[in-house]
Amino acid sequence: MRSRHARRSLLLVTAAAALVLASACAVPTASGGPATDDPAYSAADNGSGNAAVAGAGDAAQPEQKGGAGGEPTLQLSATESKDVGWFVADRDGYALYRYDKDTAKPPKSACEGDCAKTWTPVPSSSHTMVTGVDPTMVGEVVRADGTKQATLAGWPLYRFTGDKAPSRTGGQGKGGTWWVITPEGAKAQSVVAGAATPTSGTEGY
Known about the structure:
alpha+beta; three-stranded mixed β-sheet; 2 helices; globular
């Protein structure tokens, strides 16, 4: 009887040891990751940072629009001068001109080369702001070099490099062909006697 009791005790001790060993095998590893053989488990699941997060980085940044390389707005404003009455000025307040050698129907510019260096073509834009000017009269013409120039009532618009300050109208009557343009697209008329007397010189082209 004593021998049978001893064998039973030995079996119980062996079974208890096996249970302790099995419990030790189920304890998580030191790395903190779960004990699993699931092939779908990835580095991102354990917080190791080795897996990229979808939608992060550049893809999550908002799209940038209207930066320094964006198209500038064309601004045309009706302005009054004591010399020529009402005329059209650009966004900086400089007078804009029309050229007798151009045509309005259809719009066509005849000022090229050195002429365009003195009489700077006003670039057109898909963004236009007007004050005192009928927006339906604003258009554009494709120049010989492929650039687009703004027009008013069909007339290509220019800025005179000789005007060194806003509201100056020094190009009025140059060569008998250059005229400050009115909000209606017509030639501005001098208010002061003699102010619109045509002048000669290379600037008139």
